[in-house]
Design goal:
alpha/beta, two-stranded antiparallel sheet, DJ-1/PfpI, Class_I_gatase-like, 20% strand, 7-stranded mixed β-sheet, Rossmann fold, single chain
């Protein structure tokens, strides 16, 4: 069964925060098909202000597949980081995330995307993480959060957060292993020439 991954896009999104997970899930699809299996993931990019091109950090322009109003139900909702000040203040985005939480298997963030999840009220007593540079700010703004600064990612089942930028690759590979198969995750990392081992693997 194909799982749908919804990847939120907005101006000043960090390129690898969004592009890294997109690459992981799309490569996992190619590897699966090469092995004679069904496509495990459908990745949908969701623009916070519609389908107009967004301008990522550094100037890369990306055209989202759909806007929030037309976004389908997703099994995985992933919020990348970057400059999220405007995004975390958008009522439509926060409302959409709260609704998405009701049917998604997992809501996840990369880097400062965790600030958007916090603004939406989706975080609780369980530990979270973010980019090392933003740990102090996250603790200051949400003092009740248990913020960890010594992990690449944390997965609580229905909620997952990762540290900065490249850590989103680790989290995404972990999700491939969890939602598809551990073997596919390892093969995907190998295809990407990315040095990665599943947590707990010797």
């Amino acid at each position: 069964m194909t799982g749908r991954v919804g990847l939120l896009l907005f101006d000043e999104v960090e390129v690898l925060d969004a592009g890294g997970p997109f690459e992981v899930f799309s490569v996992a699809n190619r590897v699966a098909v090469r092995r004679g299996a069904a496509v495990p993931f459908e990745v949908v990019t969701i623009g916070v202000t519609g389908t107009a091109p967004i301008r990522a950090r550094g100037g890369l322009r990306v055209v989202p597949d759909v806007g929030l109003g037309d976004a389908p139900a997703c099994d995985v909702v992933l919020v990348p980081g970057g400059d999220v000040d405007e995004v975390e203040a958008m009522p439509d985005v926060l409302s959409w995330l709260r609704r998405a939480r009701g049917h998604a298997k997992v809501v996840a963030s990369v880097c400062t995307g965790v600030f958007v999840l916090a603004a939406a009220g989706l975080l609780d007593h369980r530990p979270v993480t973010t980019h090392w540079e933003d740990v102090a700010d996250l603790r200051r703004r949400w003092p009740d959060l248990d913020v960890r600064d010594d992990v690449r990612f944390l997965d609580h089942g229905d909620l997952a957060t990762s540290a900065g930028i490249s850590a989103g690759l680790d989290l995404s590979l972990h999700l491939v292993g969890r939602l598809a198969s551990p073997d596919l995750a390892v093969a995907t990392a190998r295809q990407m020439d990315y040095r990665w081992e599943p947590p707990g693997r010797p």
